[in-house]
Fold:
Amino acid sequence: MAAYACAVTTPARGAEGPGLPAVIIAPSLLAADFARLGDEAAAVEVDADWLHIDVMDYHYVPNLTIGLPVVHSLRKATSLPFDCHLMIDEPRRWAVSYAEAGAVNVTFHAEASDDPVRLAGELRSAGAMAGLAIDRDTPVEPYLEILPHFDTLLIMTIKAGFGGQEFIPRLLDKVRTARRHVDSGHLQLRVEVDGGIDEQTVIEAALAGADAFVAGTAVYGAADPGAAIRALRRSAHAAVSNRP
Ligand code: DX5
Ligand code: ZN
Structure:
């Protein structure tokens, strides 16, 4: 648990710290066929590291997706670790339930939380990694001080709310800042990017310092989702190895 020092007694699959792969590819179910979610999860079972599940509440973001009952059902349909991305108001009402439903990582938005450190502690106590997300218009600097309480930092590379948007390169400055703090030993974090990740932008994000990559359209919009994941992984690996 060196890289993920948190109060986890029984790490879920995918939370084993040193056993975590150098690059995590997390296909986002948001781009899947919602009438066939179990099959869509199965389609990426062999190749994905985590399954990214976007929970939206029609309030924090203007879109509405899936919630806890669907996550419970999906938990029985796949053994992939769940990476739950809560785009909801009042995350404290729901976040721990996602950990209890078996999510390996539960990410909530900094903008939506009045006490992120407390919620991170509750998630870790519930056996999950705690993730902090920052949206397009939120700087990372004000949160650096609290990031030691988190295991993942999700940097949106679009405006949260919808899949299929165009990647915004300037947001990688936040990734560079986070990576500097990790490399200098100030933080121990997975730096995750979400939004517009494809075979080209995954390289830019990896060079900037990301090591976990969410991809919806690039995976589920492909004829062969497994092959798309493998291609993303190859590109990300090559870029991570060449990082300055
Ligand atoms: C959007 C979601 C993303 C979305 C990414 O707010 O957080 O996870 O699925 O989709 P793509 O990869 O299509 O940009
Ligand atoms: Zn997401």
About this structure: The first strand starts at residue 24 and ends at 27. Residues 8 and 127 are 5 Å apart (CA to CA). The radius of gyration is 16 Å. The beta strands are 24-27, 51-56, 82-87, 103-109, 129-134, 152-156, 190-194, 212-215.
